[in-house]
From TrEMBL:
It comes from Carya illinoinensis (Pecan). One of its GO terms (biological process) is tricarboxylic acid cycle. Homotetramer. Pfam families: PEPcase. Transmembrane segments: none annotated. This is phosphoenolpyruvate carboxylase. Belongs to the PEPCase type 1 family.
Length: 808
């Protein structure tokens, strides 16, 4: 029994995808650095007087305005901020966490450690790889991000190897290590690089240091080659002098570990060396593996250009069957698909050059190739063919992403067709990954219908995989907020359908929650513990399956909720106008928060808007419409139809983890909401002829809240979570003040002639009574908005997001 439990634990594969698309918080380390610079700047100002002081401040304003106005957060900067949080030698604490797991196993009577190479927790990212609707992510950006990550990894490991060299000074070793050390010592024609100033060469009587010295030197070469390629595009350091993959890096470390164990030095082996092995096994030579994401239509455009160039027709116009037939015939053949004479547009070059970058760089830089808006097997086969044509030696696993409601409904059938292809089944070797999108499905149909369809889609996808003998890993594309599928990690995993985890899952970790999850050691421990415990618990004690009558009721309510949501968001003629007036959505799009555009396409309405600004805008006004819209109509209609449905809903809440978590999360959002604040935004920013529409939405809000509390059996919001209730109550007065300030700031931005006559907005009064402040503000002539308003708006956005612990 004990061994079986250890096997289950060691087989856990929880992969966390790190994102920074719309971060509005600041990195603590950067804030500390900025504070030091500010202190120094103030010291300089003290020595200036008169015109010198004025000229210095004016120059600072102009530089700042030029930088902020033209500078979008770049992928390299975003990646650097995340890698700061994921320093494997400092704050991430993976080895310490695994030692805690070892101790827990020992307390259970399992006297074995978790194998150092057990996957358990792994990290990936798509910063610099997500090109879905983002023209700023070019092949060059992808290449630079990979090189930067590799350079940072080698630099971090370099210092740790030097520490190990000092620690492993013993001479006793096994024959295997001694032979290797002798070979290295004989082959060395020159002194090793200094690992301490007064030592020029590692003596042969210290075999572990000889081995680790070679590792250290190759790490140095790996770092320098990546640095040269990043800076100049070329390097004189040959590739064979570096570590090409993590297996090469681990091999000498494993040799040292085996030798120590064989010579009776198990305690030393299980010290710093074991910790380092676990770090390297977790982070590899790239710290985080980069996933590539591209929209399926972009691959279709490439295939269409190729087939037209070959004179065999338009790929875009072909049926799905003909597409599959042609793709499979090309995959089975060996001739090149196209030559250098293929006419290439800028868009085609972008897609093909991305595959060339994947082929050029070491394979362990990359994780998966994700196809957004995937609908058919040909979407997957096209990527497989492009990988082959661009000479990707170790093809990335291809992951279809099903996002909208209709795509989720059709996903099981698409997977059946894909697994029915013999060539593809041989290619995947019994393993497949599928990503399901929480954000776009929620924006498409509302949170209620999306949550239920995601639940059903997982059940059906797992059934299909079992039918074909394939192990399916579900990749949950959750956002940081409830409107985008976010929520407490432990409960979210435990509420998944039975048999859909099986010790393996992938989850996105949004940029705005990375600091709260991994920024400090104790936060890192808690996050990793929750993922590991929930994954293990779901497999050993699966949640209950819903009763048939519960399913029927959910199906009925989902139809009602979707109709209600779409009737307002997509079919109400003036909804888009109301949304853009009542929220700071337009201002968000101009403020360079995150590196991705706020829209996938420059034109269009709600359908073209990304889920992040869609949720962010409603969160800022405390109305949270995308989260609750549709719930009230569904509850009201089924209860009016039959009062027994109320009792069934209450039974579902008490007995079904999925339904309870769904209701609890919406209840938490209501606790953060305030329709009175939303009414203030309407009064100040919305035209009078739309006031009645806003009032109708607020009546819907109150009715939904009342029904939700009735189903949960609560008299007040968060009755079952007094700790969170108290925290929100303490923050409420601060957030409300920021909301009022933001509403009046938006009014002044949109109507420069508007004069604020009431408190608490007193910035005008302050400016009139402070001549020095007034002069300083006038020194910023390039601001897009009136003096000080842009900064005020950004500060209120950050403050509200911090207070609600939500952005987009």
């Amino acid at each position: 029994m004990a061994n079986r439990n250890l096997e289950k634990l060691a087989s856990i594969d929880a992969q966390l995808r790190l994102l920074v698309p719309g971060k509005v918080s600041e990195d603590d380390k950067l804030i500390e650095y900025d504070a030091l610079l500010l202190d120094r700047f103030l010291d300089i100002l003290q020595d200036l007087h008169g015109e010198d002081l004025k000229e210095t401040v004016q120059e600072c304003y102009e530089l700042s305005a030029e930088y902020e106005g033209n500078h979008d957060p770049k992928k390299l900067e975003e990646l650097g901020s995340v890698l700061t949080s994921l320093d494997p030698g400092d704050s991430i604490g993976i080895p310490k966490f695994l030692r805690r797991v070892d101790t827990a196993l020992k307390n259970l009577g399992i006297n074995e450690r978790v194998p150092y190479n057990a996957p358990l927790i792994q990290f990936s990212s798509w910063m610099g790889g997500d090109r879905d609707g983002n023209p700023r992510v070019t092949p060059e950006v992808t290449r630079d991000v990979c090189l930067l990550a590799r350079m940072m990894a080698a630099n971090l490991y370099y210092s740790q190897i030097e520490d190990l060299m000092f620690e492993l000074s013993m001479w006793r070793c096994n024959d295997e290590l001694q032979v290797r050390a002798d070979e290295l010592h004989r082959s060395s024609k020159k002194d090793a690089k200094h690992y301490i100033e007064f030592w020029k060469q590692v003596p042969p009587s210290e075999p572990y240091r000889v081995i680790l010295g070679e590792v250290r030197d190759r790490l140095y070469q790996t770092r320098e080659r990546s640095r040269h390629l990043l800076a100049n595009g070329y390097s004189d350091i040959p590739e064979d002098a570096t570590f090409a993959n993590v297996e090469q890096f681990l091999e000498p470390l494993e040799l040292c570990y085996r030798s120590l164990c064989a010579c009776g030095d198990q305690a030393i082996a299980d010290g710093s060396l074991l910790d380092f092995l676990r770090q390297v096994s977790t982070f590899g030579l790239s710290l985080v593996r980069l996933d590539i994401r591209q929209e399926s239509d972009r691959h279709t455009d490439v295939m269409d250009a190729i087939t037209k160039h070959l004179g065999i027709g338009s790929y875009r116009d072909w049926s799905e069957e003909r597409r599959q037939e042609w793709l499979l015939s090309e995959l089975s053949g060996k001739r090149p698909l196209f030559g250098p004479d293929l006419p290439k547009t800028e868009e085609l070059c972008d897609v093909l050059d991305t595959f060339h970058v994947i082929a050029e760089l070491p394979s362990d830089n990359f994780g998966a190739y994700i196809i957004s808006m995937a609908t058919a097997p040909s979407d997957v086969l096209a990527v497989e063919l492009l990988q082959r044509e661009c000479h990707v030696k170790q093809p990335l696993r291809v992951v279809p992403l099903f996002e909208k409601l209709a795509d989720l409904e059709a996903a099981p059938a698409a997977l059946v067709r894909l697994f029915s292809i013999d060539w593809y089944r041989n290619r995947i070797n019994g393993k497949q990954e599928v990503m399901i999108g929480y954000s776009d499905s929620g924006k498409d149909a509302g949170r209620f219908s999306a949550a239920w369809q995601l639940y059903k889609a997982q059940e059906e996808l797992i059934k299909v995989a079992k039918q074909y003998g394939v192990k399916l890993t579900m990749f949950h594309g959750r956002g940081g907020t409830v409107g985008r599928g976010g929520g407490p990690t432990h409960l979210a995993i435990l509420s998944q359908p039975p048999e859909t985890v099986h010790g393996s899952l992938r989850v996105t970790v949004q940029g705005e929650v990375i600091e709260r999850s991994f920024g400090e050691e104790h936060l890192c421990f808690r996050t990793l513990q929750r993922f590991t415990a929930a994954t293990l618990e779901h497999g050993m004690h699966p949640p209950v399956s819903p009763k048939p009558e519960w399913r029927a009721l959910m199906d009925e309510m989902a139809v009602i909720a979707t109709e209600e949501y779409r009737s307002i968001v997509f079919n109400e003629p003036r909804f888009v106008e109301y949304f853009r007036l009542a929220t700071p959505e337009l201002e968000y799009g101009r403020m360079n928060i995150g590196s991705r555009p706020s829209k996938r396409k420059p034109s269009g309405g709600i359908e073209s808007l990304r889920a992040i600004p869609w949720i962010f805008a409603w969160t800022q006004t405390r109305f949270h419409l995308p989260v609750w819209l549709g719930f009230g109509a569904a509850f009201k209609q089924v209860i009016q139809k039959d009062i027994r449905n109320l009792h069934m809903l209450q039974e579902m809440y008490n007995a079904w983890p999925f339904f309870r978590v769904t209701i609890d999360l919406v209840e938490m959002v209501f606790a953060k909401g305030d329709p009175g604040i939303a009414a203030l935004y309407d009064k100040l920013l919305v035209s009078e002829d739309l006031w009645k529409f806003g009032e109708r939405l607020r009546v819907n809000y109150e009715e939904t809240k009342r029904l939700l509390l009735q189903i949960a059996g609560h008299r007040d919001l968060l009755e079952g979570d007094p700790y969170l209730k108290q925290r929100l109550r303490l923050r409420d007065s601060y957030i409300t003040t920021l909301n009022v300030c933001q509403a009046y700031t938006l009014k002044r931005i949109r109507d420069p002639n508007y004069n604020v006559q009431v408190r608490p907005h007193i910035s005008k009064e302050i400016m009139e009574t402070s001549k020095a402040a007034d002069e300083l503000v006038k020194l910023n002539p390039t601001s897009e908005y009136a003096p000080g308003l842009e900064d005020t708006l950004i500060l209120t956005m950050k403050g509200i997001a911090a207070g609600l612990q939500n952005t987009g």
